[in-house]
Design a protein that fits this description.
The complex is a heterodimer of chains A (about 220) and B (about 500).
Chain A lengths: L8 H7 L21 H6 L10 E6 L11 H7 L13 E5 L4 E2 L1 H6 L7 E4 L4 H14 L2 E6 L6 H14 L2 E7 L11 E8 L2 E9 L5 E4 L3
Parallel strand pairs in A: 1-6, 1-7, 2-4, 2-5, 5-6
Antiparallel strand pairs in A: 7-8, 8-9
Chain B lengths: L13 E5 L3 H4 L8 E7 L2 E7 L1 H5 L8 H7 L4 E4 L2 H15 L6 E5 L2 E5 L10 H14 L5 E5 L2 H9 L12 H6 L10 H9 L5 H6 L2 H8 L1 H10 L17 E10 L2 H22 L1 E11 L6 E11 L2 H14 L6 E8 L2 E3 L21 H12 L4 E6 L9 E4 L22 E8 L1 E3 L2 E3 L5 E11 L7 E9 L5 E7 L10 E6 L2
Classes of the chains: A alpha/beta (about 220), B alpha+beta (about 500).
Chain lengths: ~220, ~500
């Protein structure tokens, strides 16, 4: 898109996708409804941030970490009748810890024809694969389980997500809580006998919050 | 409006390309100091000599020593009939652009049926000029002739008559003065004919037919009749191989990877040309890097859909080449194309709905190819559900690279809850007083769901599945194995996780 050449250098700098301003945006971009009204209300834009990196910190698997995403993922891969020009997006799973189980996915409304499982053989390839999938523009969402994710890697994922217009979701251990990250949204999901607890640690354009038993 | 149907006689017009210097030209283009020698009755003789050698007085039939005495810089090369055949086949492939009917009619003769090509190429003159220029550019000295029958065209070309006979009625007149040496008859036959005073085809035709057939064989009489068009002369069309295979041989060993890549790119471009001419694409390619001592290194490439674009293949090659370990410098590279399939052109979409600017994006198949090129084909796949009771068989992987990856997916409706994560193998749980443990005692939420099936094969199961919650709140899918434990307590396993 041609831009006028007399934009000031400050404006140019602010256009850089790596620069984000806390609350100066004129209204956040429309989010992707999570399917959980309680959560949508707390997220800026009323849902998951599209074209950005979301980090979900979990202590263990099996506390509903996928269930949290399923309604949104299902809405991404629905084939809209009549909209033949726009192919539904793919959902890439990069280095999942177990086998995503198709019968259960189907029950959640996921279109299995749009599932891409990638199992890289080493750590650096996990990030590389995720970056490729994100920036390709074919994947509506990319779920990844990176063994490590430093500040720089998260920035790269964030940029790739913006480039490809894709939603990146990285699952990380609770211990990563104090590491810096470029993610637009950071959640912490934990469970106990009382139920699940969902904490919004960081939300671009939103506020930290805590939710109980959202699932 | 209906087209007028003319019952036209299937007229043929044959274009003959005779390559008298093929043994020389097959040795490589443009070497003027070259002479080809051939062993005749145990003695080596010069068969053909290049321009410089001829100027120095090297003549066919000389001994190699005599030729070397005349021109000390002379390079002698043994004749290779196999190489000549290969060159001829390459040339036949090149000729396929002019006619759908190309025929290799002898060790140094190619025939094209051009009656159907005249209109496309703008007439006989233009076609002839185009072929002559093309041959010249490739370094071939050819004698061309055109006639309504294949044999007449061949003989006229051998006789170096720049003849162009279009009417079948004129064939006789054109052939009449042709010496019999233009025919590939054995020297003994020609000698005895010469003894009778018969030196050209016209003389031959004046001989009584029965006597001629008796003395020189019916075959020769038939040949004459075919040349004149009195008898049909069916030929077999030559077909270029459908698979591409090309070598690049280097004069010395190379280990410069950039250079090797550049050569591969050239090979890929040749491959693209080859496929383009046939409207084909391929899904697989194989590069082989040859070394002087070590075993050849092979590098297979695969794509999610058939393609021929060299840029596309080059991109994949570069990804794989980065990680390729070459044990030694490379002396030759071979590119072999995989089985081909018809490639249908796709019409572009008019830009009415432009939701996302998609030019700089690539398609799913391209993404899968890129990923697979780096981390391996088996590491990139889709999934499918299978209508099956046993949980571990209720799904399968889906090959994204299969020719028909877009197969219909199985839709399985299941009322019962299933976990989103399945463990690759059920994990044995430790026990405490008959209670399964996982981070402590499990609390059962629902179950049992009895799955006892598969008696028809050796993987039958007899299990009670339960949904349970661990003390730390993880949703688990566990089962108690009911089979094959007489005595002792039943074993509990973890099979899935409610992610």
């Amino acid at each position: 898109m041609p831009r006028t050449s007399d934009t000031s250098s400050l404006e140019k700098l602010l256009e850089n996708p790596r620069v984000w301003r806390a609350r100066s945006r004129t209204g956040p971009a429309e989010g992707l409804s999570s399917g959980y009204a309680q959560l949508d209300r707390l997220l800026p834009g009323g849902g998951w941030p599209r074209q950005a990196l979301t980090e979900i910190l979990i202590e263990q698997y099996g506390i509903g970490e996928l269930q949290l995403l399923m309604p949104a993922l299902a809405s991404l891969c629905i084939e809209e009748p009549g909209a033949e020009a726009v192919e539904p997006g793919w959902i890439a799973w990069v280095a999942p810890p177990f086998q995503p189980y198709p019968p259960a996915l189907q029950k959640c409304g996921i279109n299995l024809a749009r599932m891409l499982i990638v199992r890289p053989k080493n750590d650096s390839e996990v990030l590389w694969s995720a970056e490729q999938a994100l920036s390709s523009g074919t994947c509506a969402a990319v779920l990844l389980w990176p063994p490590v994710l430093d500040d720089q890697a998260s920035r790269r994922l964030q940029l790739a997500a913006e480039k490809g217009g894709s939603w990146a979701i990285a699952f990380r251990p609770l211990s990563a809580r104090h590491e810096p990250s470029a993610a637009a949204l950071r959640l912490e999901l934990s469970a106990s006998h009382q139920g699940t607890r969902l904490a919004i640690l960081k939300s671009r354009g939103g506020r930290p919050a805590v939710l109980h038993n959202v699932l | 409006m209906s087209l007028p149907i003319t019952a036209a006689k299937a007229e043929q017009l044959w274009f003959c390309v005779y390559l008298p210097n093929l043994p020389l030209e097959a040795c490589g283009p443009g070497d003027k100091d070259l002479a080809v020698i051939e062993e005749q009755q145990g003695v080596h003789r010069v068969l053909l000599a290049g321009a410089h050698a001829r100027a120095a007085g090297v003549l066919p039939g000389q001994s190699p020593n005599a030729a070397l005495a005349l021109l000390p810089t002379l390079k002698l090369e043994e004749r290779s009939v196999i190489r000549e055949q290969q060159v001829l086949e390459l040339l036949a492939t090149w000729f396929e652009q002019f006619s759908s009917f190309v025929c290799i009619a002898g060790p140094d003769v190619l025939l094209l049926e051009i009656a159907g090509s005249l209109r496309l190429f703008g007439g006989l003159k233009r076609l002839r000029r185009q072929i002559a220029t093309g041959l010249d550019a490739q370094g071939f000295e050819a004698s061309l002739a055109i006639a309504p029958t294949p044999l007449a065209a061949t003989w006229l070309a051998r006789g170096r008559r720049r003849a162009c006979v279009r009417e079948p009625a004129n064939v006789m007149a054109a052939l009449r003065n042709l010496p019999l040496s233009c025919l590939d008859w054995p020297p003994t036959v020609l000698e005895s004919l010469a003894g009778m005073g018969v030196t050209d085809i016209g003389d031959c035709l004046r001989l009584p037919r029965e006597g001629f057939a008796r003395r020189f064989g019916v075959k020769r009489l038939l040949q004459l009749d075919r040349a004149l068009g009195r008898l049909p002369d069916p030929r077999n069309s030559w077909r270029a191989p459908e698979r591409f295979c090309a070598d690049f041989e280097m004069t010395e060993e190379q280990s410069d990877r950039e250079l090797l890549l550049a050569i591969c790119h050239e090979l890929l471009q040749a491959h693209e040309q080859f496929l383009l001419a046939r409207q084909l694409g391929t899904q697989r390619l194989l590069f082989t890097f040859f070394h002087l001592k070590a075993k050849a290194t092979s590098l297979p490439l695969g794509g999610a859909r058939a393609d021929r674009a060299s840029d596309h293949w080059y991109e994949l090659l570069r990804l794989r080449f980065e990680k390729l370990v070459l044990p030694e410098p490379v002396i030759a590279i071979r590119l072999r194309g995989g089985t081909t399939q018809a490639l249908h052109g796709a019409s572009g979409r008019l830009a009415f709905h432009d939701r996302v600017p998609r030019e700089h994006y690539y398609s799913m198949s391209q993404l899968a190819e890129r990923l697979a090129a780096r981390i391996g084909n088996e590491s990139v796949h889709g999934v499918n559900a299978v209508a099956e009771h046993r949980p571990q068989y209720a799904w399968s992987t889906r090959d994204l690279f299969a020719a028909r990856a877009a197969d219909a997916l199985t839709r399985v409706r299941q009322g019962i809850e299933r976990p989103l994560w399945l463990l690759p193998e059920p994990e044995l749980l430790s026990m405490d007083n008959g209670h399964p443990l996982h981070q402590g005692r499990l609390r059962f939420v629902s179950g049992p769901e009895r799955l006892e099936t598969g008696w028809w094969d050796e993987y039958g199961i007899a299990r009670d599945y339960y949904t349970a919650v661990s003390p730390r709140g993880a949703g688990l899918w566990v089962f108690r194995n009911r089979g094959r434990q007489r005595g002792g307590e039943a074993a509990w396993y973890l099979h899935g996780i409610f992610g």
